[in-house]
Amino acid sequence: MTTRRRARTTDPSTPQPPRSAGRMSFALTTQQMYAREKTVTRRTGWLRVREGDIITAVEKCQGIPKGGHQIIIGRLRATSVRRERLSRMISDDAYGRRECVLEGFDWLTPVQFVAMFCKANGVEDPDDLITRIEFVHLEETA
Q1: Could you report the per-residue pLDDT of 68-118, keeping only the tens digit for each?
Q2: According to a count of CB atoms within 10 Å of the terminal CB, is the N or C end of the chain lower?
Q3: Which of 55, 93, 59, 91 is nearest to 73 (CA)?
Q4: In this structure, which topology does domain 20-137 adopt according to CATH?
Q5: How large is the average pLDDT for residues 13-29?
Q6: Counting Cβ atoms within 10 Å, is residue 132 exposed (0-12), middle (13-18) or buried (19+)?
Q7: Strand pairing of 20-25 and 40-43?
């Protein structure tokens, strides 16, 4: 016996409720997140996150000692998601300087930010594609 799939009954133009994209660690930028100075993050993964997704920001996701728990910073809504080369921050200096501020590192130059990102994330080539996620904070931080 074969089963048939039901045809979609909702109008595709009807806005769908936001989906949860899961928990995202901000271990390197915890202070900037609590201060709400950070509205952009770059990730080597996160290929499935979409505009409108809700992200739970946590201080740390891995390496939590036995009996410990994740500390939630707050909830975020992704407002823009795109793949781009990390090296764009260096090749377009004005863009790179703006992005350093949005990333919460206003004291770093684009070259310094890219070097720090590569070291922290094991990226060997700044020409690699990364995921740039822009977001808004949805609630007061703890």
Answers
A1: 788 899 999 999 999 999 999 999 999 999 999 999 999 999 999 999 999
A2: N
A3: 59
A4: 2.30.130
A5: 82
A6: buried
A7: unpaired
